[in-house]
């Protein structure tokens, strides 16, 4: 790839993302929807100005570093202040880990026509909701507590698990792993190792930040140290245990964010701006890789598969996970609907498709097409409707501030109190 072509790729990508964000600000439409649309316009499905595969092996490296920044920012921001909220996140993750994997496998095979191994990889790839999509939507809508915290926590927990599991299933398909015992061992090693390394690096970063007070005008130095440790940690994890860098980034962010003596609030604002820039670059870049040739062979079976994930599996999992926890019907309805997939899902699908095609596995294009169809439908439908639905149900902070909030939204403290009261004695 020539330097001129490389410069044009990044110039067009960043410009299109910036225009999409400006349009989102001017129109009030969700930014993630416009970012995705801009990628389709400049990419293989539109004008053909951007071809992500021109980056070669560098595509995975760039995407990985930027995703680690986004996940670190999510961990830094993660706040689960009440026991009931934390328990809700853990229950949703546990239930979805079982139902989504099994249901996604059956739907991808039965409706979309993927063979069983590729269907298993698909179910793992689309397991998690994307923090890169959910977090901006939650902030733009202004969801009343504890819904925003629950949705953000779910994405941050399941995103690394889904990526690691998808990689191990891919290695099992390609013959690199032998048997389910090795898969389970690999999952524990990557997740556990990533969390331990991330926690250690987060502690080191917190100690350094504690010695460099924000009040001394050292914001740039604090940011540089944070990025240096984060990127070194991520690349080191990927060298030792592939895909362990994602849980490490989340763990590091959580550790730094929970240390009261690090002035994390000031650092968080700087990291948030960089994370937003990463999202502005990544969404158009990865969406540019989509072609209608990948989507058209899926037909209505692919659409039915994605709609079943959205309208059947998700509500079933949320209903089971939140049963008896004090959530109102309106809150459970919004949790059931808002589950868009994000950048990590797109990145994993793109990189896996390359490996599968290189290995000569039939159906790699269908797998990538179905994943991107899932992203397109969930981001498009849920991104556009989440705000009006939340306002209609009275679940925004603005609704909650009027006359003590609507009955549908309820008070966050009542939700948590109900959850805590019910847990010791069971449902």
Characterization of the model:
- This protein is mainly α and 427 residues long.
- The chain has one domain: Na+/H+ antiporter like fold (Up-down Bundle), CATH 1.20.1530.
- 75% of the residues lie in helices and 0% in strands.
- It has helices spanning 3-27, 31-42, 58-77, 83-110, 116-125, 131-141, 147-174, 180-210, 219-240, 245-258, 264-287, 292-295, 299-321, 329-337, 343-358, 364-393, 397-400, 412-422.
- Helix 8 (180-210) runs antiparallel to helix 9 (219-240) and helix 13 (299-321) runs antiparallel to helix 14.
- The longest helix has 31 residues, at 180-210.
Topology:
Layout: H1 3-27, H2 31-42, H3 58-77, H4 83-110, H5 116-125, H6 131-141, H7 147-174, H8 180-210, H9 219-240, H10 245-258, H11 264-287, H12 292-295, H13 299-321, H14 329-337, H15 343-358, H16 364-393, H17 397-400, H18 412-422
Keywords:
18 helices; mainly alpha; 427 residues; disordered C terminus; 0% strand; Na+/H+ antiporter like fold; 75% helix
Number of strands: 0
| Helical fraction | over 70%
Order of helices and strands: HHHHHHHHHHHHHHHHHH
CATH architecture: Up-down Bundle
Q: Unreliable segments (pLDDT under 50, ≥5 consecutive)?
A: 402-427
Supply the helix-strand structural class.
mainly alpha
Which shape, going by the Cα principal axes?
A: globular
Distance between the termini: 61 Å
Tally of separate domains = 1
Summarize model confidence as the mean pLDDT: 81
